[in-house]
């Protein structure tokens, strides 16, 4: 995953209306596990990860309004992050596949997108 400086959420995460500036902080050497850390409230953090290691076929399609909001001009500028719900171990940690965070690495704009696919779970286990 490329290094991403501070990003701006064009729409705040649910429950956090005043938090729009976040840093993406790498938590492991491989860059798989990261956190979105609020720059306005450093105690506010969300564990996130690229879907590739655990969900290699995950390829969400986002609506045109998301493309416009994030000013996406090339798919190469897009990073998709899954929000994690940390369990006591990797076996009990889950990922939200229904609402990924989409980041435009060119404009540094991001948005959590709720996908219109009932087959996508809110809590997909990382380990089958």
Describe what this molecule looks like in 3D.
The structure is a single chain. This protein has 128 residues and is mainly beta. It has a single domain, classed as BH3618-like (Roll). The protein has one helix and eight strands; from the N terminus they run ββββαββββ. It has one helix at residues 64-70, and strands spanning 7-9, 21-26, 33-38, 45-49, 78-85, 94-104, 109-112, 124-125. The protein is globular and about 35 Å long. The model has no long low-confidence stretch (mean pLDDT 90).
State the main characteristics.
128 residues; mainly beta; BH3618-like; seven-stranded mixed beta barrel; 1 helix; 8 strands; globular
Briefly, what is this?
It contains 1 helix and 8 strands.
